[in-house]
Write a structure and sequence with these properties.
mainly alpha
């Protein structure tokens, strides 16, 4: 039962991560494609700002994923002891 729950949690986490990564990647793709076609310096600057923001967002996401993985690994190795609440 615990193993099944862990597998379900990992699958849900993977689906969430995939969704969170695809959004900034789609935005990056659109901005980069636009940069090839746009001549106006103001619009190019705006697209570059979008690219910078999406790169920062991806960096934060990757850092958060790494932190979650480390925390999960630490919890998996933790030795829990019963606590008398009475």
């Amino acid at each position: 039962q615990a193993l099944r729950q862990r597998i379900d949690n990992i699958e849900a986490f993977a689906a969430d991560v995939t969704h969170e990564l695809k959004n900034p990647l789609a935005s990056l793709r659109s901005a980069v494609d636009g940069l090839e076609r746009i001549e106006d310096p103001g619009l190019r600057r705006q697209l570059l700002d979008v690219v910078r923001q999406d790169v920062l967002r991806l960096d934060r996401l990757v850092s958060d994923i790494g932190e979650a993985a480390r925390t999960d690994a630490e919890l998996a190795r933790a030795a829990f002891e019963p606590v008398d609440l009475g």
